[in-house]
Amino acid sequence: MEPKRPQVRPATEGWTQQKDAAGRPLLQFASPKRGKPPVHLADLKPEERVARVVELGLPGFRAKQLEKHYFTHYTSDPALMTDLPATGRDEFVAGMLPPLLTEVRRLETDRGDTIKFLWKLHDGALVESVLMRYPGRITLCVSSQAGCGMNCPFCATGQAGLTRNMSAAEIVDQVVRANRLIAEGGLGDPRGLGHDGERVTNIVFMGMGEPLANYARVMQAVRVMTDKTHGIGMSARGITVSTVGLVPAIRKLADEDIPVTFALSLHAPDDELRDELIPVNSRWKVGEALDAARAYFERTGRRVSIEYALIKDMNDHGWRADLLGDKLNARGRGWVHVNPIPLNPTPGSIWTASDRAVQDEFVRRLEAKGIPTTLRDTRGKEIDGACGQLVATEDDQRAAAATEVAGPH
Ligand code: SF4
User: Fold this and answer.
1) Per-residue pLDDT tens digits for 275-288
2) How far apart are CA 297 and CA 254, in angstroms?
3) How, if at all, do strands 304-310 and 336-342 pair?
4) In the chain, what are the domains?
5) pLDDT grade, residue 400 (50/70/90)?
6) Who lines ligand 1 at CB under 6 A?
7) Is 344 part of any known ligand binding site?
8) Staple 74 to which of 15, 170, 180, 339, CB 3.0 to 4.6 Å?
9) C-alpha 153 – ligand 1 centre gap (Å)
10) Whose CA is nearest to atom 4 of ligand 1?
11) How many other CB atoms sit within 10 Å of the CB of residue 367?
């Protein structure tokens, strides 16, 4: 018999969740109206880029040259673009590649293999990305919104609600800036081989924001990341789009012809707990989210990831592992993979790490049901860069206030 374990209920600590008129946690799907960021090459489709170049008074083929500078050489600096006519070059480049992200702060781990960037957007909004070197791959965790409207009680990002959607180019620029840093040797050189050709290989949309709430811009960003002729040319498989469960958008994603890796941040297999843990569950229930995830697999043939943060005495009970396994198996075999993610130990908080033995038991039970399961590494936690913890602190705000808008590189 399984010993009876306590049930800790989700609650915010040190802040109050905004509620709607019915007393439920407020969900914000629409982006507040704010000044839009300047239009950038990466916001545009290839033919629109040509049209814009012509509008700015140059022949259309200049668009291709700019694509090369920006997506291959990671530069927006007109001084380095000597293949463009010198007269009017600065204005032309400023019109096509306006500065979008100003670096406010950079935090590195001791070994220099994890770097967290804090960026200021044109309107002062702050977002973050985290760059991580692993053996054989380099992963960048990107933000897709400033703030977030999903109001999860454990998540620092959601506290202030949604500031605004990021533009496609603001999302892409995080990748280009990371690639520039890698090319300059800023992410260490463990093999001593130099940095030729080294760049970000994997993207996870697990920074600030709910990517599927900013659907069109996230899709444009993904297209640019994967376009081999007019973009960065990454493999779609290396790109993970995650969601807390916006079901209509998951179904739409399945219909796009881009085989990204899809991850559902489930965190609880039962509606009773998930309604409190992930407020959007009040809109789309566990079963609906799993049905949509299964449909994604059927449509794309790509195995789905289920993300599950293990929180002590809240969602880490053995019966929940069994229930999760049953709900996944009820929708077929071989279509899904579960990633339990251990939280940081946070003494005194209800949001703290499960005991090691409990983590192991959770994994064992899923595996016993035939579900492939991998306990994930939570790299980045020592610099507070683990997913779901991304928030600008007051210190960051001060640092941002002291930063002038930088030049175009
Ligand atoms: S956990 Fe994700 S979806 Fe929930 S509030 Fe935070 S950023 Fe938004």
Assistant:
1) 999 999 999 999 99
2) 8
3) parallel
4) 41-96 (1.10.150.530), 99-223+379-409 (3.20.20.70), 244-377 (3.20.20.70)
5) low
6) 148, 150-152, 155, 157-158, 208-210, 244, 388
7) yes
8) 180
9) 9
10) 152
11) 14
